[in-house]
Amino acid sequence: MLRWKDIIYYAKYSNPEPSYRIEKTESEWRRVLTPTQYAVLREKGTEPPYRNAYCRSYEPGTYTCAACGQVLFNATEKYHAISGWPSFTQPASRGAIRYAFDDSHHMQRIEALCNVCGSHLGHVFHDGPEPAGLRYCINSVSLKKLEDEPEAP
């Protein structure tokens, strides 16, 4: 389980190494992403609160990076944070997310990025539920939800 001190350590010193990396030119990203996805994932934008695909969705499944398909979050870690964006308490794995300090918009935050392709996902805060107290506030447009396969009888 990741805690706030882990997030600060990663942002300050070194993020976990992903098992592989995906690198594309910006023109390649423009070809594979919608304009809205490009604005959020590659230009660090933010989609409007509450009017997004996964804000009020709590069905079982796995959330992947919309740009590269890397598994980022499990629906079991999703909760209703009343923030306007999907919120998660933990990533799917320790190395799924890369963390960076973000001083934009006159705020000090920790940016959450896909650790495989470097796409902007959202931010992580230390005001989430116990036991870890983390809230990953993620743009819906940066995610793709994979439905869980039904179990065979």
Question: Any overview of this molecule?
Answer:
With 153 residues, the protein is an alpha+beta fold. The protein has a single domain, classed as Metal Binding Protein, Guanine Nucleotide Exchange Factor, Chain A (Beta Complex), CATH 2.170.150.20. The protein contains three helices and nine strands; from the N terminus they run αααβββββββββ. The strands form two sheets. A six-stranded antiparallel β-sheet has the order 3-4-8-7-6-5, covered by helices on one side. β6 (109-114) and β7 form a beta hairpin. It starts with a helix and ends in a 7-residue tail after the last strand. The model has no long low-confidence stretch (mean pLDDT 93).
pLDDT average, as an integer?
93
Could you say what the CATH architecture is?
Beta Complex
Q: Examine the coordinates and then state which fold CATH places here, giving the name of the CATH topology.
A: Metal Binding Protein, Guanine Nucleotide Exchange Factor, Chain A
Overall number of strands: 9
Number of structural units classed as domains = 1
Q: Which percent band covers the strand fraction? A: 15-25%
Name given to the CATH homologous superfamily:
Peptide methionine sulfoxide reductase
Task: Categorize the overall geometry.
Answer: globular
Helical proportion, percent range: 10-25%
Q: Low-confidence stretches at least 5 residues in length (pLDDT < 50)?
A: none
Strand order of the largest sheet: 3-4-8-7-6-5
Q: What's the CATH first level?
A: Mainly Beta
Distance from N terminus to C terminus (CA atoms, Å) equals 33 Å
Q: With helices defined by DSSP (H or I, 4 residues minimum), what is the helix count?
A: 3
Largest sheet: 6 strands, antiparallel
GO molecular function: peptide-methionine (R)-S-oxide reductase activity
Keywords: Oxidoreductase
EC number: 1.8.4.12
Protein name: peptide-methionine (R)-S-oxide reductase
